[in-house]
Amino acid sequence: MPRAAALLTVVMLAVLAGAPSAGAGDSAYTSCSGGFNPDGSPGSFYAKIKVKRITCTAGKKVVKDWVIQAEDSRVPPTATRKVLGYTCKGKASGGALDVKCTKANGKAVTFHGQP
């Protein structure tokens, strides 16, 4: 009987070791290169783009669409706005702007705007 219990313990540990967990990989952001100017063209005004659970290409599309919406809008950049299914909220501090766009499924994009 003790041998069966030991075998069961080894099997359970092996199963648990292979099980996905909500570890650091799920919460970590990936930095992306590049950025955008206020008119949506490539540049460095809105940069320091980081993504979570999506590609940099997809994240940059969210940023670019946010920038274009902000440029065409009379709504302040700190207002909450919907962009490609993401809810985006900007926070101004010291002449700079930090924006975070999130989806309920945990996908997220952050970026920084500064002249």
What does it look like?
With 115 residues, the chain is an alpha+beta fold. It has one domain (27-113). The chain contains three helices and six strands. The chain has a six-stranded antiparallel β-sheet. The radius of gyration is 21 Å and the shape is globular.
Secondary structure elements and pairings:
Elements lengths: L1 H17 L5 H4 L2 E2 L14 E7 L3 H16 L9 E3 L2 E8 L2 E7 L5 E6 L2
Antiparallel strand pairs: 1-2, 2-6, 3-4, 4-5, 5-6
Radius of gyration: 21 Å
Give the N-to-C terminal Cα separation.
72 Å
Low-confidence stretches: 1-25
Give helix and strand order, one letter per element, not per position: HHEEHEEEE
The pLDDT mean sits at: 81
Shape, please? globular
The spatial strand order of the largest sheet comes to 1-2-6-5-4-3
Question: Could you give a short account of the major beta sheet?
Answer: 6 strands, antiparallel
- Proportion in β-strands: 25-35%
**Helix percentage:** 25-40%
Query: Count the strands?
Result: 6
User: What is the domain tally?
Assistant: 1
Oligomeric status of the shown chains? single chain
Q: Tally the helices: what do you get?
A: 3
Secondary structure category: alpha+beta
